[in-house]
Amino acid sequence: MRRDIQFNAEGTLLRGWLYAPESRTGRMPGVVMAHGFTAVKEMYLDRYAEVFAAAGLGVLVFDHRNFGASDGEPRGEIDPWAQVRDYRHAISYIRTLPEIDPERIGIWGTSYSGGHVMVVGALDRRVRCVVSQVPAISGYQASLRRVPALQVPGLLAAFVADRERRFRGEPPTMRAVLSEQPGGPAVFSGADAIEFFSTAAQRAPSWRNQITLRSVEMAREYEPATYIARVSPTPLLIVAASDDNLTGTDLTLEAYERALEPKRLHLIRGGHFDPYVKEFASSSGAAREWFLAHL
């Protein structure tokens, strides 16, 4: 059972879906979910929500501000701290629903939002458990790996030029999310990213292949894993990929070692985008069992 929902996030309407089991008695635990960098809810989050709802959970899936069905301007701008706050608004909203037990709320995030849920889990004690899938760990370290050293001065100069354009009241500079061919100029230029987004976009007509350049600048400044030790005593599950060359398997495993108990690591085969399709049964099953154990 799925219905459309919307809620007010300090003046911006965020929209999404609420999933519920077809049959239930009494109030049920709730899970709040959102997607990663540039992605929208139709890019396989419905599949995860269906798995969780079939297990007896109520699931709130929403689009980030400035993306998909949600309001917000400028379109295509990704402010990680605004997205963290919106997770907390979504928690406030789901706790008002009569069918949800407000004391049994879990959160799930993937990639960029996998970093967000670590931050939210550390800051918001309304959260009873956290699932962080192929999470963003360090914006600076990720940038060092993705941007060749010779291109860094030009990127920093572009950030300054964009900031001054905005100050003059001009439109923000935009950047392509995907390059047409591997290695081309874009935020994601790897063959696996191109394959994932090109395929997933067929399920998501609202997805756009552009974001603001400032989104890239803010991502470079974002360090979500600095919060990982503070998630405890809230239970934390990390779903990592064995060959993640986007957020970095090594960075994820190092961050996991800094997390305190209770925690669990679930390692799947493959790269950053494999949890959504190739390893979906493994990634969704591990999350479902974590929620059932702790909610």
What can you see in these coordinates?
With 295 residues, the chain is of the alpha/beta class. The protein is built from 9 helices and 10 strands. The model has no long low-confidence stretch (mean pLDDT 96). The two termini are 20 Å apart.
Shape: globular
Q: Tell me the helix content.
A: 25-40%
Mean pLDDT figure = 96
Which runs of at least 5 residues are low in confidence (pLDDT < 50)?
none
Overall strand count: 10
Estimated radius of gyration: 18 Å
How does the major sheet shape up?
A: 8 strands, mixed
Structural class based on helices, strands and sheet pairing = alpha/beta
Count of helical stretches: 9
Write the H/E string, N to C: EEEHEHEHEHHEHEHEHEH
Question: Which helices and strands appear, and what pairs or packs with what?
Answer:
Elements: E1 2-9, E2 12-19, E3 28-34, H1 45-54, E4 58-62, H2 80-94, E5 100-110, H3 112-123, E6 127-133, H4 139-146, H5 152-167, E7 174-176, H6 191-200, E8 210-212, H7 213-221, E9 236-241, H8 249-258, E10 263-268, H9 280-294
Parallel strand pairs: 3-4, 3-5, 5-6, 6-9, 9-10
Antiparallel strand pairs: 1-2, 2-4, 7-8
